[in-house]
Amino acid sequence: MNTRRFLPTTNSARLIWGIALFLVVYQVLFGFSPTVISWDTYGYYLYLPQTFIHDDLGIQDFSPIEAAMNGPVQSDTFYQAMKSDLGNWVIKYPIGLAIFYAPFFAIACLISWIGAYPIDGFSLPFQHMLTVGSLFYTILGLWFLRKILLYFYSDSVTSIVLIIIVFGTNYFHMHTRSHGMPHVYLFTAYAALIWFTIRWHNERKFWIAAVLGLILGLMTVSRVTEFIAIIIPLTYGLASPKDAIHRLKNARKYYKHFALAGLFFLVFVIPQLRYWKVFGGAWLYDSYQNAGEGLDFLHPYTLEFLFSYRKGWLIYTPIMFLALWGLFVAFKKKTPWKWTFLFLVLCFVFVASSWTTWWYAASFSQRPMVQLYPVLAIAIGLIVSKGERIRKGVLVFAAFCIVLNLFQTWQYNNGIIHIDRMTKSYYWKVFGRGSIPDGAEDYLLVNRSMTGSEEILSDPQNYQLKNQSFLTLNEDKITSNPVNEIDTLRIGPNTISPKFEESFERLCSKDHAWIEIAGKVLADSNDLFENIYVISTFQHKWEAYKYNYQPLNSYVKWNAKGYFDFQLWYLTPEVRHPNDQFQFYITNSGSDKTISFTELVLNVLQRTDKLN
User: Fold this and answer.
1) To the nearest whole number, what is the mean pLDDT of the chain?
2) How far apart are the C-alpha atoms of 145 and 179, rounded to whole Å?
3) What CA–CA distance (Å, rounded) separates 587 from 498?
4) Is the pLDDT of residue 419 over 80?
5) Bridge partners of residue 316, in order along the sequence
6) 319 in the Ramachandran plot: left (φ > 0), alpha (ψ -120 to 50) or beta?
7) Cβ contacts of 575 within 8 Å, gap of 6 or more
8) Distance between CA atoms of 37 and 24, rounded to whole angstroms?
9) What's this model's pTM, rounded to 2 decimal places?
């Protein structure tokens, strides 16, 4: 057997082998986390143990969930699923990542059986094999990307672009630390989709059409919005409107290819639809039922998504200016992908920035852009392959960006760059530093609870009173009044008080405010307070978020003058829309007596200007 044919013979091939070795060594030195399956990853993964270990995909028996949440899974609430009207728990995330994980889940089952580990889906073999699987898909994706780049460019250009993508972007953080998240897997899927699109347009073979359908189906059931990747096979090679018309006229020749691709697309989509129908009650079931976040195509956050210091893609991944330059240069050359990739990038950025939590929680730079890097790598190749003079400048810029990216990734991993509270002031205070300077943390965005635990105004010196108003009864609602007219709110047995409602934009002129509601409770003792509940919440389109529902005991303290002091603090959430309403009301669900609230005052505190 000639083993030499398996050895790398070009620089780009040696580079892929070197990156693979680097990833393995890095992971061994860093260590294998025993809690990879946590937070969002737990939701993507949950299909596997619930199907193959517990045979309970509808989660009728909640005890395995409780055992996992009290054991290896890091997640303070079970937000990864929700109850449907049918009484089943429906997993929030689609099934695609579980399909990616499945081969390594099977290997983990075998290792657990041989090594006498618990076959529960969460013991060390399962945690470690998910990391191994992520490394496998990373290397596979880079292998596909190398093939694509070699199709368009020389081996030296290919090598440079691979180095830029692996070490100069936030893909480095994803493929070394975020092993369970979808972006590394989708990077590989995009690379495979591009490669087989090129092959189909060159060879027109049935089996390639089938592969394209499978890849696009798997991408769609990994993240539903990835269906926009259909732009790649449908429009690749179109250079003008005449080309589009010509392709439509000739589409009849390949209708069997399209039909086959459609059938294989359904191989992964039908199980997802059936899961939603059986356990959610609808073929198309909205499993993201969280009023606090969602897609809002009428109000995208595109500028913030690209340029904000909080999580701006081009702020934290500036090397991608080369890709944008490449997309521009593509129109000066006869590239078969110029319209395809430009249209895809524009659509992708629009959709990703239309997610109302556009900073995508804990991540370095904009993590949803990672899966698009095979597309952008091709654009970068155009710039790297320019003339010698420009190429030297590009390489100097790329080297600077690689050093910056690796250093800032280290800062992120060590808590110097914050996971989601960055500001312009704080960014420049920690820029290039190996530790956080004294006082710099005062310039971060407000510290919001990620777990629903109590939030405390710990830095009152940084806030000032924006406005103060007094709450009075006005027919069937509570209204604010600038004049102190003493009014009494009486809550009888089994009643709900009128509501105080005010929009965020009327309450607050900045990104957040602390709301204080204070007053008196007229009662002789607090024996019945445990049945009185105070509700403070925001509402978007009649759905509540940042919902606090606490007994009155949580907010009162006895005053020697013969009444209870009432005080509620509420930190406004990341509101979806400025018109979203803050609501405050009280319910008496068990007490047989009337409770009286009087002299209620509303105070709104905002951060001082210097901390913007």
Assistant:
1) 94
2) 19
3) 9
4) yes
5) none
6) alpha
7) 504, 538, 540
8) 20
9) 0.95
Residue 611: band (very low, low, confident or very high) from pLDDT cuts 50, 70, 90? low
Total Cβ atoms within 10 A of residue 107: 15
d(CA 390, CA 385): 9
Strand partners, 472: 479
Contacts 24+ apart (CB under 8 A), 38-41: 38/72, 38/73, 38/74, 38/75, 38/180, 39/74, 39/75, 40/80, 40/93, 40/180, 40/181, 41/130, 41/180, 41/181
N-term to C-term CA, the chain: 67
Token pair listed for 166: 């692996």
Q: Is 20 left (phi over 0), alpha (psi -120 to 50) or beta?
A: alpha
**Cα-flanking dihedrals φ and ψ of residue 341, to 5°?**
-75, -35
Residue 391 CB coordination number (10 Å): 15
DSSP 368: G
For the cut 90, the answer to whether the pLDDT of residue 459 exceeds it is no
CA distances from 388 to 356, 385, 391, 392, 394 (A): 44, 8, 5, 6, 10
The closest of 192, 233, 206 to 337, measured between CA atoms, is 233
Instruction: Please give the pLDDT value at position 451.
Output: 59
Cβ 223 vs Cβ 343: under 8 Å: no
What pLDDT does residue 2 have? 55
- Residues 183, 174: contact at Cβ < 8 Å? yes
Check if the beta carbon of residue 244 is closer than 8 Å to that of residue 238.
yes
Q: Which two three-digit tokens encode residue 389?
A: 């003079």
- pLDDT digits over 27-71, tens only? 999 999 999 999 999 999 999 999 999 999 999 999 999 999 999
Tokens describing residue 412: 């992120």
Name the residue type at position 195: W
Give yes or no for a contact between 251 and 215, defined as CB atoms under 8 angstroms apart. Answer: no
CA angle (148, 149, 151) in 5-degree steps: 65
- How far, in Å, CA of 220 to CA of 97, rounded? 10
pLDDT in tens, 541-571: 999 999 999 999 999 999 999 999 999 999 9
Residue with token string 């009023």: 291
What is the per-residue burial (b if ≥16 Cβ within 10 Å, else e) of 226-245? bebbbbbbebbebeeeeeee
The helix/strand count (H/E) of the chain reads as 21, 14
What SS3 class is residue 79?
Answer: coil
Contacts of 55 (CB under 8 A, 6+ apart): none
DSSP string, 507-526: H-SSS--EEEEEEEEE-S-S
List Cα–Cα distances, 524 to 558, 593, 598, in angstroms.
10, 12, 15
Q: Which two tokens stand for residue 227?
A: 């269906």
